[in-house]
Amino acid sequence: MFLAVRSRLVYIALLAAVAAISVPGVQAATNPPETTHHHKKKGPTKAQKIKAAVAAAERSPDLWATANKCESPSLDDPTADLVGIRAQMPGLGYPATLSMMFSVSYWNRTDNMFEPANSSQNVSLGMGTRGVHQGGVDFHFSPPASDAPPFVVRGTVTFEWTIAGKVVGKVTRNTGHGYAGVGFSVPAGYSAGTCTLTVPPGG
Description:
This protein is of the alpha+beta class. The protein has 3 helices and 8 strands; from the N terminus they run αααββββββββ. It is 21% helix and 39% strand.
């Protein structure tokens, strides 16, 4: 009798164990759910931001070059042959050294192209972060002996942005016309794409 009761209790315990394994609620209680880790998406790096800022500056209407002076020889000054080139560049939003390389060229009527006039000058604008920055150079044009006046002259400016000794942006523009806010223009407000230097009076 005792053995029969004991066997029956063992049988009931085995049934209970099988039921616990097969019931989802019991299984969930014994094995906790897996945890999913969500990683935060990384934003652009500083180098990528600077690259985007340079691309925006190169497309900006605040980046330009123009002739702000064009003085041909006259009775008052028969030696005048002045071409002024003025340029403007925007900051990147990051501290950078800003510089401009100015040069001039003249129209060669024989070859139908602009020829370098072997005149260039670098201008450093120092450190700049935001806003716009202007610089300029006045060139005394020496006409080539192989050509005759009038001489059509234009300027070319290469802009550079440098951060921590590394050039991060560089772009070149020829002089254009019609820009506002051009400093040191003669006369005031003058902005031209080219400058035509004529023959001296009586020449």
